[in-house]
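We modelled the chain as a single entity of 379 amino acids. Its sequence is:
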Amino acid sequence: MKSIDPKVEEAIDTLGMRGVARRRLLGGAGMVSASAAASALLAACSSSNKKDSGSAAKGGVGDFPSTPKWKFVFVNHVTTNPFFTPTQYGAQDACALLGCSFQWTGSKDSVVPEMVNATNAAISAKADGIAVAVVDKTAFTTPVDKALDAGIPVVSYNADGAKGDPGTNRLAYIGQDLYTSGYQLGQRIASLMQGGDAGGFIATPGSLNIQPRIDGAQDAIKASGKPIRFTSVASGAELPKELSTIDAYAQGHKNLKGMFAVDAGSTESVGKVVAKYDLKSKGVVAGGFDLNPATLSGIKAGNLDFTIDQQPYLQGFLPVLFLWMYKLSGGLVAPSETDTGLLFVTKDNVDPYLSTKTRYEGSSTRQQLVGRSGAIPHK
């Protein structure tokens, strides 16, 4: 039997060849000799290995290359509001996954100049990326342009200026379509009420993270043709003030047939006031936005008819992911417009939210795998 050069064996083993194909190649079929086959195969393998070593990750996450520990800055309008607890968890989890960090800053009370100052501070500090809740359609135009001119990518989240006018040249918006969600709120109100007075509570009127919802609700109610008198009422940016304002309004308007809200704190407060005065027994319907634990409990107890989920966790996770990919790809992978959705949570589907405490709703700090079973609901 002809002696086989060990180099040939090595080359064939590298290719993982078996059976007839291996025997034919070892016999030199189709080539001048087995030695020539080995030379060709080893050259190919060597070339492949060189390419792989040039593109393989060296110390980065997953198969990605090593990167600096980029720092991204989130500029928020109500930094202590419980609605944004899952948003911060989302940013934390994305940073842990990707090996970066983030700063949470802005204003406690939706003071736009404070947010602008925070944005400018992030630019001066040479942040690697910025996510801004654009609650004013003119105030952030210059700061965002300044950041982009400095090579700092900027996205908006949770709020994106006015309907049809984002107010900035941000690369993308990650959040709920606010006017559409308000319009669907108005449609739900019209389906629950035949007529009468309804209060529409809004933490900070004019703030573009929630004002488009009030506008949408009013347009939908008007389009319904029903004699519903929907009044917008300012409730305040801090939860204690929201509760006292809504309580006083209910006491001063005994003929209310509906109580609704367009922000997390006001929705929670509506549920508490409905329960306090047993307004359900008087035919009052109620609902609002977001998944504060007290809101979910209010739905289960029957004090609220619904709330609307906008997935705040994703509004923290996705901006980090998009900004990181932009940096990694040298701008080739640009952030994409992302609607984080709209889901009505009612007594029929609230149980999973109450029985499972997770970071995704801000009801737990614990990292966990959340199991589920059964069919996935669909139309």
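As a brief sanity check on the tokenised model: The chain has three domains: 6-48, 71-176+313-340, 178-309. The chain has 13 helices and twelve strands.
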